[in-house]
Design a protein that fits this description.
Chain A: Pfam families: MreC. The complex is a heterodimer of chains A (279) and B (171). Chain A has 279 residues and is of the alpha+beta class. In chain A, a hairpin with a 5-residue loop joins strand 7 and strand 8. In chain A, helix 2 crosses helix 3. Chain A is elongated. The termini of chain A are far apart. Chain B has 171 residues and is mostly helical. Chain B has one domain. The longest helix of chain B is centred in the last third of the chain and has 31 residues. The chains are: A alpha+beta (279), B mainly alpha (171). The interface between A and B is medium-sized, with 21 and 26 residues.
Chain lengths: 279, 171
């Protein structure tokens, strides 16, 4: 102890220096914002890079485990892929409905054959009666827009009477005021991007750009967007007007369609045949 | 250490700090060369001063200057380092038993000894000051350049002051 005291006393200048110098440095760091920030940053940097290196090391140590889990995952995904390749997806999509029970279910189908250039265009799809498809079901396109109705059904295939058909008539209305009309194609128009809405009463005010949606009658759910009005007031000489609309869906690039199964279709049909037709 | 020495040193402290704060603070060559004449006070403190007292005086002087310069801690640290170098240099170069001179001034110790002593002390002080101010090693050469230019400036002023007063004292 005495020797230590002598040692300290002999080199007292050095110890004083250490003490005072430390106090000075502490004062500097405490009172100067820049110096403090630099110190903090560099400490953070040192600590951060140390952690980074540790992580790299850890990653190497865990490599075997990671490999195993990846192999397991790979096997699982491959099995899934094979099973997906062999069966095609028969997905049903739920449409929100105000009726407690679900009225509409959607069934996806792939377009096998399509035509747009003829007067009466027919689309063939890869779903048939085995998938529960019956005649006169409504068909819509994956984007906005209607496609048509089921025309004929075989066990695995079906044909669709497209909108681009002389006999197709879809009940639509104007989105803004619910004015009823019928969507038709043809009448000297052979452009697959255009269609006509007929039988809109003349007293409704229609502007260019108004949206046309399905009315809910005839198999389509209510409110499917069909197109936008491009020309108004095509005079027909009576109390109804005809609108020219631009269709939202493009028939020339149609790849997939959705068939709408209406749970209440049969019920509605029987009910409506009971009431005598007034026309 | 008599009262006259104490009085002279206190007087010197006030004059040097006054000059430093109110005159030299505004004097700088392109922000490269900044003189710190106030450390002359620590340089020429008497030989016989105890180490602890020397450190406390250096610390206090640095603290006072820092409060004027708004760099609390920088000059304090530098002055403490300066005091340490002063003690080391004197213990190496001066025979402790033959202290016949009261203080290490130019007139007492001769031009050669005093200039080496001053250069060393000033350099250490400036080195600490500039590197604490810059506080990063990325601009090492620039900071070192500023430090060297400032050392030259300060040394010039220190020698100038010493020459002026040493003549008067020896008379």
């Amino acid at each position: 102890m005495r020797n230590l005291w002598i040692f300290i006393n002999r080199y007292n200048a050095f110890f004083y220096f250490i003490i005072f110098f430390t106090v000075g440095i502490v004062l500097t760091l405490k009172n100067n914002v820049f110096q403090r920030s630099v110190t903090l940053n560099s400490t953070n940097e040192v600590v951060g890079s140390a952690y980074e290196r540790l992580n790299v090391l850890k990653r190497y140590l865990n490599l075997g485990q990671v490999n195993d889990s990846l192999a397991v995952e790979n096997a699982k995904l491959k099995t899934e892929l094979i099973s997906l390749k062999n069966i095609d997806s028969n997905k049903t999509i739920v449409v929100k409905d105000t009726v407690n029970q679900q009225q509409y279910t959607l069934l996806s189908a792939k377009v096998i054959k399509n035509s747009i250039t003829q007067r009466n265009n027919i689309i063939t799809i890869n779903r048939g009666s085995d998938d529960g498809i019956v005649k006169d079901m409504a068909v819509i396109s994956p984007n906005n827009g209607v496609v048509g109705f089921i025309l004929n059904v075989s066990p695995h295939l079906a044909t669709i009477r497209s909108l681009l058909h002389k006999e197709t008539l879809i009940s639509v209305n104007l989105k803004k005021n619910n004015a009823f009309g019928s969507l038709v194609w043809g009448d000297g128009n052979f452009d697959f991007r255009k269609a006509y809405v007929k039988e809109i009463p003349n007293h409704f005010k229609v502007n260019v750009g108004d949206t046309i949606v399905t009315s809910g009658a005839g198999g389509f759910p209510k409110g499917i967007q069909v197109g936008k009005v491009s020309k108004t007031q095509i005079s027909t000489g009576d109390s109804f007007m005809t609108l020219e609309i631009n269709l939202f869906n493009d028939f020339s690039t149609l790849q997939y369609v959705y068939i709408i199964k209406n749970r209440l279709a049969e019920e509605q049909k029987t009910l409506e045949t009971q009431t005598p037709n007034e026309q | 250490m008599n009262s006259k020495t104490i009085f002279i040193n206190i007087f010197r402290w006030f004059v040097l700090l006054f000059v430093q704060v109110f005159l030299l603070r505004n004097l700088s060559f392109y922000n490269l060369s900044t003189p710190f004449i106030y450390i002359l006070f620590i340089l020429v403190l008497p030989f016989g001063i105890p180490n602890l007292l020397l450190f406390i005086i250096a610390f206090g002087t640095g603290l006072t200057l820092d409060s004027f310069y708004d760099t609390l801690g920088v000059h304090t640290t530098a002055c403490v380092a300066l005091a340490f170098v002063r003690i080391l240099f004197i213990s190496v170069s001066v025979n402790r038993d033959a202290f016949d001179e009261p203080e290490p001034s130019l007139g007492n110790m001769g031009f050669k000894w005093f200039s080496i002593y001053a250069i060393l002390c000033i350099f250490v002080h400036h080195f600490v000051v500039f590197f604490l101010e810059a506080f990063k090693l990325s601009e090492f050469s620039y900071t070192l350049g500023r430090c060297a230019l400032s050392v030259i400036f300060t040394l010039f002023l220190v020698l100038l002051v010493e020459f002026i007063f040493h003549n008067r004292k020896s008379n």
